[in-house]
Amino acid sequence: MICCKNSGFETRVRSGGHDYEGLSYISYKPYCLVDLSNLKSIDIDVQGKTAWVEAGATLGELYYNIANKSKTLAFPAGTCPSVGVGGHISGGGQGPLMRKYGLAADNVLDATILNVNGTILDRTGMGEDLFWAIRGGGAASFGVVLSWKLQLVEVPPVVTFFNIARTQEKGATKLVRKWQKLVNEFPKELFLRININPKKNSLGQPSIEATFNSLYLGTRRQLRRLMRRKFPELKLKSRDCEEMSWIDTTIRIDHYRNGSTIQDLLERKDKRPTFYKVKSDYVTKPLSKKALEGLWNVFNSGFGLMIFTPHGGKVSEILEDATPFPHRKGYLYNIQYFAMWLKPNQTVEQIKLDWIKGIYDYMGEFVSKPRTAYLNSRDLDLGKTLNGNEKYSEAKSWGEMYFGSNFEKLARVKYSVDPGNYFRNEQSIPPLAP
Question: Where does the FAD-binding PCMH-type domain start and stop, copy by copy (predicted)?
Answer without folding.
Answer: 1-155
